[in-house]
Amino acid sequence: MNQCTPDIERSEEQDVFLPAVKSIPISMLKQNGLLQALAEEASGLTEADPSEEVLRAQEEWEALEAIQSGTADNSASPVTLISFNEALQYFQTADLTECRKRIQPTMQRRGLSAVAHFFFGPPRLHQQLQAERDLAFVIAQCGLDNNEKVHMRILQTIYKKLTGSRFGCPRYGAHWEELGFQGLDPGTDLRGTGMLSLMQVLYFVMDPQTFLLAQDIFKLSQHSTQNFPFCVMSVNITRIVIQVLREERLSRECNRRHQVIAVLNDLYVAMFLHLYYTWKTQHKTISDSGFVLKGTFSLHLFCCSKG
């Protein structure tokens, strides 16, 4: 049963993302072509998204190797990698009635605020896209559930992709702090963002166009002086994404692309890229995190308002 949350130095030749940011306006980061160009510049080759069969075959082989070598962790059952699309399909078909009851897709405006929004605010989201928008809010209301296999596969996939580990890990433990969660249980850091925050990290690490960037950001988060909690930072970015969606600032872009969740993911990646660039080039430390997040938020509010 799904639970609902209450309230919601890599080498120089490898640091390939920074020049791209200098020469391209942040407002263009929402476009798919830029994210693809960044990845192609990094690797010289854009890989195809692995099929479900390839992912499962790889995991089954690694599980067999673990058993034969005796390195398998008995405290964590074997879990196969999960793609973003498979995870999304799960949420599209799961019974999330209780979570759906708690969503607030748009801001409640009254009086002059409502009148001003009607005449001067962003366009309304097309009716055919409202169900997809609502799904994003439903996922954000869905808490991490140990009894849901898909939830556990999402968590394990994030761990394996970020750490490069060939094997899974226990549900609880200090290894989650190494990824940038605050404690031994990642579920306690998802307040207000629920499974949507994990879904956005999953997209980040499983999409070949963004994976190298995710690796670079995670490596910077482990820096001796510029370190920061990667996953906590990610949750905060997802929280901003949710706020921007609720304020209807993404409606124009969603209407143009006839998509919602893909737009949310692109905004998430764009914000993380901007934060990474600022953090690395301006030599920020954890004491600057609030300032950097606020600056990232303000900049992207401006970009969204310009469509």
UniProtKB/TrEMBL annotation:
GO terms for cellular component: cilium; Golgi apparatus. Pfam families: ELMO_CED12. GO terms for biological process: auditory receptor cell development; cilium assembly; cytoskeleton organization; gene expression; protein transport; sensory perception of sound; stereocilium maintenance. Residues 150-304 form the ELMO domain. This is ELMO domain containing 3. It comes from Crocodylus porosus. The gene is ELMOD3.
